[in-house]
Amino acid sequence: MIEAGVDEAGRGPLAGPVFAAAVILDKEIQIEGLNDSKKISEKKRESIAQEIKEKAIAWSIGISSSEEIDDVNILKATLMAMKRAIEGLKIFPDIALIDGQHAPQAECKVRTIVKGDQSQKNIMAASILAKVSRDNYMKEIDDKYPEYGFKQHKGYPTKMHLEALKLYGVTSEHRLSFKPVKKINEPS
Q1: How does DSSP assign the chain, residue by residue?
Q2: Structural domain harbouring 77
Q3: pLDDT tens-digit profile of 61-110?
Q4: pTM for this prediction
Q5: Is the dihedral of CA 16, 13, 128, 130 positive or negative?
Q6: 179 domain residue, yes or no
Q7: CATH number of the CATH domain containing 53
Q8: Is residue 99 part of a domain?
Q9: Is the residue at 58 inside a domain?
Q10: Residues 129-148: pLDDT tens digits?
């Protein structure tokens, strides 16, 4: 049975897309340091992500934009990104193991696993790829909007980010439906 692990990154930030990854690993292959992406340093995540891409049977990234998040809500947008990641795999899985309690619609069977990113290697790998891909995207948009500090906070609602929002306003990357952004955007 071919199992894909699926996880997302970027549900909580005020800016940028939500990313999901789907990964199919060979059960015989070991990847040193595989864990929940939140438990690994940024530098370590980068090198493990490279190894996952090299050793995985298949991997794919799915994205839902800030506009999609605003249109349908963050949960539905996350599920759309997960579905896109599964559909992007070059080998179709028999089952997709989804981190968390909400499952996307997919052509294969799906099973949700709460805290799956702490127990399932395929989900751990997906967690790392989703996080690294999203972080890299946020670093790229930092060049376009250097005053916001996206490279540091990756769009999360830090003090630095909230102050930049007040000072410079909302960018096309911001999620207009998220309360702190909505507040800035409302006329006083």
Answers
A1: --EEEEEEE-SS-SBS-EEEEEEE--TT---TT---GGGS-HHHHHHHHHHHHHH-SEEEEEEE-HHHHHHH-HHHHHHHHHHHHHHT-SS--SEEEEESS-----SSEEEEETTGGGT-HHHHHHHHHHHHHHHHHHHHHHHHSGGGTHHHHTT---HHHHHHHHHH---TTB-TTSHHHHHHHS--
A2: 3-183
A3: 999 999 999 999 999 999 999 999 999 999 999 999 999 999 999 999 99
A4: 0.95
A5: negative
A6: yes
A7: 3.30.420.10
A8: yes
A9: yes
A10: 999 999 999 999 999 999 99
Q: Domains in the chain: how many in total?
A: 1
Residue 188 lies in a domain: no
Question: Rounded CA gap, 125 and 55, in Å?
Answer: 11
> Could you tell me the CA-to-CA distances from 73 to 5, 14, 159 in Å, in that order?
23, 13, 24
